[in-house]
Amino acid sequence: MRPEWVERELLDFGIHITDGSITSGRTLAALFSEETVKRLLEAEQAAMHAPNLAVAASMFSKRYAYLAVSSSLYLMTLYDGIYQFSPEACAFREDRKIELDATRCSFVPLEGERHEWREQVVHALFTQCVTPLLDVLNRTSRLPYSILWENVAVRINSLYRSMMREAEDPAVKQRVQEDYLFLKQAAGDVFGAQQNPFRRSLNLADSLLETSNRKTCCMYYQLEKKSESLDYCLVCPLEKKKGTACS
């Protein structure tokens, strides 16, 4: 049974919990198919006026990282708990939010040694719900892994920077720092990869308060129909675009 605060916190990330079965053809499990994810990317490309599937895949991966990765790590770090979902229990809505089938999800609180529990939580999240999706996005759109993984890393950087700014309890601040360091230093197999995909892109200083530029470009500037008010991403690595970006 999930605590009452879980639903409230997930709603802030655009995640809706439903007690009914999900009938959508856009479940995460379905998107592990190249044919299905291509149809989704084509719809995203048209909606955003993206020039190609690669740009659509980049924007979609950024959105998914916010919805699924940021929300999960937020609960893990601040609440010592996680609302664990399977690919079959997660569906993408047309409003670019996520719906979770509560009958197939479970709240997993901290049990035993925290460092062991944390590794299990992160491993399940990435190997079941993140890395397989990035793999199929790469195969379908030819978007390089370096961009896909840095799209996730940017969301993690932003999340932990925000949590550090808002934390008042020294114990919480320490947990934020420790979890961020774990994500940066963990072995690759924790993420279902040969090596840690975040080793170079989780690059905040020890205080976690500074903003740092990306190493790859997410190609947001190529969208004809932008969701933000400015033209470029704030952490754009292209020198000539600095200072003209959106967050």
From TrEMBL:
| Occurrences of domain Aerobactin siderophore biosynthesis IucA/IucC-like C-terminal (ranges) | 59-203
- GO molecular function annotation: catalytic activity
The record, for InterPro entries, names: IucA/IucC-like_C (IPR022770)
Q: Report what the protein is called.
A: Fe-S oxidoreductase
Annotated source species: Bacillus pumilus
